[in-house]
Design goal:
With about 270 residues, the protein is α+β, with helices and mostly antiparallel strands. It is built from five helices and 14 strands. The termini are far apart.
């Protein structure tokens, strides 16, 4: 009897030692909630115009809770812990409000994987934005082929996936009926505004519209030794329903354009300079 007990104890000790070795080799990673990710963020569209970017990272943390992380000006790398799972979205919003760049962890991560490097891309921004808004519909989001969706949105938007009808895509996704027929582009409009002279740089680096300007009053102008700059009639072509942001390096103004689905427009200018 004693010999049997001894043999059983030895067997259990060997099993415990093997399990300990396994846990050590895995770094205990599979027992930790989520996985550590190095998120690299592309340069914001206004960086070349002299605006130092500030980014707001949005992602589901290791416990699946939606988390926002505000980075210091100029910082484009963050180490975060994200949820393990299918189609885990990460989005970086310049200034917390411009069109984000995005990335996905598209499969269940290997239990032995403790850290992963992810480079966010502008073309994944719309899909990541949609998936973050629909976190409550995780069962639907997990089945989406994000690569196929991103390619279809790029093609339909002629290089700008934000030109697609995102509300229609979200509605189809929630109903489980997302297919190519649900990815449709929005109608484009031209808008003319009286604005200070200067160039206007789009906040969406994928936007393929144009901006042109001419003096608002031909032959007009101020008199005196230091004439004030003339206002310009600025025409924006290729705008679609939604919010568009532009920046003027000369005036330091940020222009917010709100276009509705009938081509109506509201706008406001704010200064980005202190």
């Amino acid at each position: 009897m004693n010999r049997g007990i001894t043999a059983e104890c030895v067997r259990m000790l060997l099993m415990a030692a093997a399990l300990a070795a396994l846990l050590s080799s895995c770094g205990w990673g599979f027992l930790q909630p989520g996985v550590e990710v190095q998120a690299w963020i592309p340069q914001a569209a206004w960086a070349d115009a002299g605006v130092e970017g500030r980014y707001q990272l949005v992602f589901p943390n290791g416990r699946g809770e939606l988390t926002e992380l505000c980075l210091a000006p100029g910082v484009r790398l963050a180490v975060i812990r994200v949820q393990r799972g299918f189609n885990v979205p990460i989005a970086a919003y310049p200034f917390g409000r411009l069109k984000p760049a995005g990335a996905f962890l598209t499969q269940h991560l290997d239990n032995r994987l403790i850290r992963r490097v992810v480079r966010l891309r502008n073309r994944y921004g719309p899909a990541a934005h949609i998936m973050l808004e629909l976190r409550a519909q995780a069962d639907r989001c997990e089945t989406v082929q994000v690569e196929a969706l991103t390619r279809e949105m790029q093609a339909e938007g002629e290089g700008d996936p934000w030109k697609c009808d995102l509300e229609r895509i979200k509605s189809a996704l929630v109903r489980g009926r997302l297919n190519r027929l649900q990815v449709c582009d929005l109608e484009s409009y031209n808008v003319s505004l009286a604005l200070p002279a200067g160039d206007w740089v789009a906040g969406n680096s994928l936007w393929n519209g144009t901006v042109s300007s001419e003096p608002a009053n031909e032959g007009g102008g101020s008199t005196g030794d230091s004439p004030a700059p003339e206002p310009m009639t600025v025409e924006f072509s290729g705008l679609y329903a939604g919010r568009h942001c532009f920046y003027s390096p000369e005036s330091g103004l940020e222009l917010h354009l709100y276009v509705d689905k009938k081509g109506g427009c509201r706008w406001v200018c704010d200064s980005l300079r202190e």
